[in-house]
Amino acid sequence: MPTAADYRDTHRELVLGCQRKDRTSQRKLYGHYAKPMYNVCLRMLRHAHDAEDVLQVAFVDIFGKIDTFNFDASISAWIKRIVINRCIDHLKKRRLLTTDLDTNRHDSAVEECDPAPAFSAQKTSVEQIKKATRQLSEGYRVVLSLYLFEGYDHEEISQILGISVGTSKSQYSRARKRLAALLNDQN
To answer: Boundaries of each RNA polymerase sigma-70 region domain copy (predicted)?
Structure first.
C-alpha cells in the first residue's frame, strides 16, 4: 500500500530536472499536468479561452517558483494550488460577485446543506453535468468547483475568496440546487 511519502515523491526526478531548468523535464511535467489542470481551469472559469490563458500563466508561475518546491507535499497538490490561485486571481479581476448573507440568520440552515433536488444519475452524462455547471453564475460555479471537485472546505474557500463561511455554504447549497434543476431540465 502506497505511503504518504510515495505520493510526495511522485515525479521527483522530473521536478529535480525542472529545478535545474532542464527543458525536457519541463516539457514532461507540463505534458503530465496540463490536461487535468486545464479541466480545473475550465470548471472554474467556464470559457475555454480563459482557461487556456490562465493555464499558461499558471505554468509560467510553476516553472518560475519550482525552486521553492521542497517535496513536503505532492507536486500535483502544489501545482493545483497555483492553478486554482491563478483562476481566482482571474475571477477577482473580473470582479467576482457573491452575495454576502446575514450569517447569523442563515448559518444554521445552511450548515446542514440540504441535499439538492434529486435528478436521475442514470440518465445524466458527464457532458450534461459539465454543460449545466458552465451555466451556473460565477459565484455558484467557483464555490461548487472548489468544494465539490477540488476538495476545499468552506473555511478554506472563505479565506481564498475573501467571503464569509456562511456565504460559502449558502453559495454551495444554492449552486447544488440550481445544478440539479438544470440537469432535470435537460432530461
So the answer is: 29-95
Q: Which of 19-23, 32-36, 109-113, 122-126 has the lowest mean pLDDT?
A: 109-113
**The three three-digit cell numbers of residue 136, written as one number:** 451556473
Contact (Cβ atoms closer than 8 angstroms) between residue 172 and residue 143 = yes
- In order of 56, 70, 97, 142, the CA distances from 163 in angstroms are 27, 31, 10, 12
Burial string for 68-81 (b: 16+ CB within 10 Å, else e) reads: ebeeeebbeebbbe
Write out pLDDT tens, residues 47-83: 999 999 999 999 999 999 999 999 988 999 999 999 9
Domain 103-186 has CATH 1.10.10.10: yes
CATH of 4-93, one of 3.10.580.10, 3.40.50.720, 1.10.1740.10, 3.40.50.1820: 1.10.1740.10
Closest CA to 161 of 70, 77, 71, 100: 100
End-to-end CA distance of the chain: 42
Other CB atoms within a 10 A radius of the CB of residue 1 amount to: 3
